[in-house]
Amino acid sequence: MKKTKEISHEPDLKIPNTILGSQIPRDLFYIPDPNFNYDNDLGDPGEPPYTRGIHRSMFRGRNFTTRQLAGLGLPEDTNERMKFMLDHGATGLSILFDLPTIQMYDSDDSFSEGQIGMSGVCVDSVDDMFRLFKDIPLDKTSISIVTHYPTNTLVLLPMFLVMAEEQGIPFDKLRGSSQNDMTMEELVRSGIDFIPPQDCFRIQNDNIEYLSDHAPNWNTVTLNGYNLRDFGATSITESAVAISNGIATLEEMSERGYDPNEIAKRISFFWCISNDFFEEIARLRAVRRLWFKIMKNRFNITDPKALLMRCHSQTSGISLTQVEPYNNIIRSSFQALAAVLGGTSSLHVDSYDEAYAIPTEESALLSLRTQQIIQKETAITDVVDPLGGSYYVENLTNEIEQKILDEIDIIESDGGYVKSIESGKIYNKIVSYFTEQQKDIDSGKIEIVGKNVYQSDTSLPPIDVFQHSEEVEKEQKQRLANLRLTRNNDDVQISLQALEYNCKRNKNLFPYSMECARARCTEGEIFRTILSAFGPWKPPSFI
What we know:
By secondary structure, the chain is of the alpha/beta class. The chain has 21 helices and 11 strands. It folds into 2 domains: about 40-445, Alpha-Beta Barrel (TIM Barrel); about 470-540. Helices cover about 50% and strands about 10% of the residues.
């Protein structure tokens, strides 16, 4: 939609200053654009260019998936939390791992000291996967394994699959996703051991290749904009980097002989929803339309399912405050509303106490109830894309789409996605943005209620924060000791040697990691083998 007039003087122009906002100037009001074409710019829901949603009836025909994160303490503790969420109406599960598991260290590694089970569930081997998913119907529940990194996907997902295999569950019955995103491993990760980007990208595509061949209903890669955004990026950069990864992935898989029509069907996205309400709605609409155009025009996709941008959204963790934490309920509720109005496929709502620790059972239930109230009590889902045709929303959708495309062009001109990671250009862009944003928060330019504006001297009663048991670390270390005593260590060494050998050859690594999982190799043993084979890489940010 066309703006009311040329932006030339301050009274008619305002730039929103919000956490993780794109600072796109907004005019005072908007009028119809005479060049607007309904079919090309909007279209009906479920029809190209999918601006209005990927299904014709959207949430009237099917609810968005209420997929809350679960992960705390020992695997048995998370198992109880998952069953609690399912019993209270959750329709999907997302498994969050603790820091040592995410960083691929065993629980008895010195790096893991004091961190086991703190920020998620600890998993060291296939045996922990059995404890984690006890009595969970794997063939009937959509499960997101939040592995973040390609290398961690190569380690943890085989453990999950071997668990299913030993239960007699065919892989084609499994539904879910793993993140498997190189951006997370090479750019956002806070670990100390990195492998070179080209090798990491190879692993990302090895994972996709194996899952495409053996687990056809599994989403092979979740292009993770969320953590990049909370790391310090606008919705524009978040979208551009994720799409650039998707482009590079489809090109690589095409070179491996795979049909982009098949690969694109199992690609999904993970978006962060922050505070600029209308921008978040418009961004989901814009990125859905842009992905369709890229699939159709660049990759000549013909399968309708492969043209769709399927996405999970999560409310912004970095926007939560420890000051007046109940305000976080309101923040997350508005963010969730924006995600639904923007047409997300599934949703996680952050809990108000996540500024302190992992959620308590009470706060996790409240976040689930937030989604259910939106679904059942507001009538928002009764009409598809209710903001479609808004002069403001359509203008913002067009502007955001163009800005995302401009950033993709910059990444392409820099040599593409992998090269931009290697050079540190994306990292530098994010650090610069995040630094400026923090200055704006400190100065009060970005206003945060209760923190730097409308501050209160009233002492609020303390909230109930999740209490971590020190027995978790002791128990998990004992389990590892028992595992190493009872497994066949000859099989362990044989499988690890085969994995290391094939890291240096042009062979898909996933089958060899499966053998490691079957032999009961631990996560740390598998990761150290991969690191030894590829050698360490020092990110530009560390130089």
